[in-house]
Design a protein that fits this description.
It is a single chain. This protein is an alpha/beta fold and about 350 residues long. It is built from eleven helices and twelve strands. An eight-stranded parallel beta sheet has the order 3-2-1-8-7-6-5-4. The chain is elongated and about 100 Å long. The termini are far apart. The model has no long low-confidence stretch (mean pLDDT about 95).
Length: about 350
């Protein structure tokens, strides 16, 4: 397994399949290989059924009144979106063939037990389950790393979830900033919260990104994100509950490339010239003769100036050299150095 919570040297890129298989196991397998080809480190699915998430009830409580799924009934939406459990072992084996990590989000204890039997090596908790403390405790009790999305979560709710994990003796936690809107809009993402979460909870942090494009992911990495999760599809033209806000392979590949460039640009704390800058130091300013200075003549503001390039004495020496005498002739355009000067009398 490539995922190492204690050694996240670069952003770990998760391609969330979710409902983008659109009911086809063959398409699900294609997504696994396409995600690998696009630079993902991991492909993620979700383990639930409509019955493990909700009940088959058609009263107003179970209707979605706005957003991407406006007009849907919860039960029927989850029926369309779920990944059949009988596929999941086969999909895990396919991921192993593709040499890409395989991850799932369980939504109840039966799903956790099922994934344990599959040999799941780490878990994701969805934002909507952030407040399901019994589920979080049960997942944490398995002693495996947990990536926890925090969409909609208050600081207190996140603290409760983190405490629940740690209460099971499990310190393997990554928190993901998330805007639980589909798609999310940039002005409500508040990505700077990523830095605050890292400091507040003393864990690695990342972004579960439902916005369009890769700008948020790149920005998050610049702010310290070590995990990026994006919904991934073969094509948005393949209609399913998640297609409208998912990335196509070439878009995901471009995002990965942009993230890797951002990581290089962020770099490490460093002062002084870089290797590229070494050749530019010579173009700094220094002290030069701007008139011929004869031997024994005093240095004055008329015969020397601070100019580019940088072969002479540093500008901070200017006041010191004014009034000194030339030990030898210093012609126009010659850099000043102390071996050509002596104290004036």
């Amino acid at each position: 397994m490539k995922f190492d919570i204690n050694n996240l040297q670069r952003a770990y890129m998760i391609a969330e399949m979710s409902a983008n298989h659109a009911g086809s196991i063959e398409r699900a397998k294609e997504i696994i290989w396409a995600a690998k080809e696009a630079g993902a480190d991991c492909v993620k699915i979700q383990t639930y059924t409509a019955d493990t998430l909700t009940i088959d009830c058609d009263n107003s409580y179970f209707h979605i009144d706005n957003g991407t799924w406006e007009g849907e009934n919860l039960y029927h939406l989850y029926e369309k979106a779920y990944t059949p459990w009988e596929w999941q072992g086969e999909l895990k084996r396919e991921a192993e063939k593709a040499e890409i990590d395989f991850l799932s989000t369980p939504f109840d204890k039966t799903a956790v037990d099922f994934l344990e039997e599959l040999g799941m090596e780490f878990y994701k908790i969805a934002s909507f389950e952030l407040v399901d403390i019994p589920l979080i405790e049960y997942v944490a009790s398995k002693g495996k790393p947990i990536i926890l999305s925090t969409g909609m979560g208050t600081a207190e709710e996140i603290e409760e979830a983190v405490r629940a994990i740690r209460g099971q003796g499990n310190e393997q936690i990554v928190l993901l900033r998330c805007a639980s809107a589909y798609p999310a809009v940039s002005d409500e993402m508040n990505l700077v919260t990523i830095q605050d979460m890292g400091k507040r909870f003393q864990v690695p942090v990342g972004l579960s990104d439902h916005s369009m494009g890769s700008l948020a992911a790149v920005t998050a990495v610049a702010l310290g994100a070590k995990v990026i999760e994006k919904h991934f599809c073969l094509s948005r033209s393949i209609e399913n509950p998640d297609s409208s806000f998912s990335m196509e392979p070439q878009e995901f590949r471009q995002m990965v490339e942009d993230v890797r460039l951002a990581e290089k640009a962020v770099g490490t704390v460093k002062y002084g010239p870089t290797s590229q800058e070494e050749n530019s130091i010579v173009f700094r300013r220094s002290i030069f003769a701007v008139k011929d200075i004869e031997a024994g003549e005093r240095v004055t503001a008329e015969n020397v100036r601070i100019i580019r390039p940088g072969y002479g004495l540093k500008p901070k020496e200017y006041k010191k050299v004014i009034g000194m005498r030339a030990k030898e002739r210093i012609p126009y355009g010659e850099p000043l150095s102390y071996d050509k000067l002596e104290e004036g009398e």
